[in-house]
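To the team - flavin mononucleotide complex, inputs and output below.
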Amino acid sequence: MGISFDNLAPPRWGGEVPDRVERPACRLGPDLVIDPPVVLSPMAAVTNPPFRMICREMGAGMVVTEMIHARLLLEGDERTLQFLDLRKNEHPVGVQLFGNDPVMLAEAAARVVEEGADSVDLNMGCPMKKIVTSGCGAGLLKNTDLIYEIFKTMGDAVDVPLTGKIRAGWEDSNAVDVGLAMQDAGASAVTIHGRTRGEMYDGHADLGVIAELKRAVDLVVIGNGDVRDWQSARRMFHATNCDAVMVARGALGNPWVFREIKADLDGLAIPAPPDLDDRRRVLTRHVELYVETFGVERTTFEIRKHLLWYFRGSAGEKVLRKALRGLKTQADILEALDAACEACRLASPEPPIQASS
Ligand SMILES: Cc1cc2nc3c(=O)[nH]c(=O)nc-3n(C[C@H](O)[C@H](O)[C@H](O)COP(=O)(O)O)c2cc1C
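Output:
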């Protein structure tokens, strides 16, 4: 997908850390409050139930599923239906849909609400060629009339808040036009990743575009792009006046980012980075939730990338990479984790480098 982590690596923002910004919980609808106003981004092949639950436990105020193809959902595609597995203790959870047919999206929205979605989100940001050439994802940004029709039709079908996740625009920013179309159609919130489709993941998110959108609409505005710690969250709130922030790459291997941002919003001391024992405990829980949800065989394949994210840049990474070959059982996974933790311990009495650094 051409996703880069470079823009999350230091030094990525010079200058002073802005003063703390007070932000109350953010209301999306009569029954839906994001508290604290920090959301886990939708991420394909990442934000499945185990990861969503870990992030909620770490303090995320809301989580969003991976994107779900509306047509495949309605056709009963087995793999797509699995994405609709919402757990009792992860709410509030938004379900992200992907498609461009208003009637189909409205039917899919009704279906996901039946399954317990607290809100329904429309993907208007995916930059992949295959997706945009079919007029979906960021391809929708070129057609504000269609965006209006989609939200209107979905709004007639469901009672939960409707949200849309956009990029700043296609090549140039048209976020305000998109936001106003959504607002006129009755949407509740817009999440904006401050890069255009053309920018993919290059450079840094443009906070000015997010601020402009916030000034122009009455919708809840959720700022997204390069938030990876309490300092960058402050900067997003400060520079854009957004109502909530959304974190994607900064949470990969680092669900602690939510507790950090929550503490800062609450005016509390920023918790120390997790030590090895904390990490071992959360990783073990992540593995257990994964096995419980998907079974051991699937876990041994899919958990690898998560574990590597947790140890990225640490002395345990190389050891882990080797130990991850040939995993078969849950015990094998935990042994690989122990080996990685031990390598970190031997290399330094300090905890490994923050996963997102
Ligand atoms: C692995 C991965 C998968 C993603 N999948 C989705 C997706 O399914 N839907 C979506 O709207 N955005 C998706 N995104 C984009 C993120 O939600 C987010 O907008 C983007 O990464 C910028 O935020 P960040 O700087 O916090 O990473 C994905 C990003 C990553 C890294």
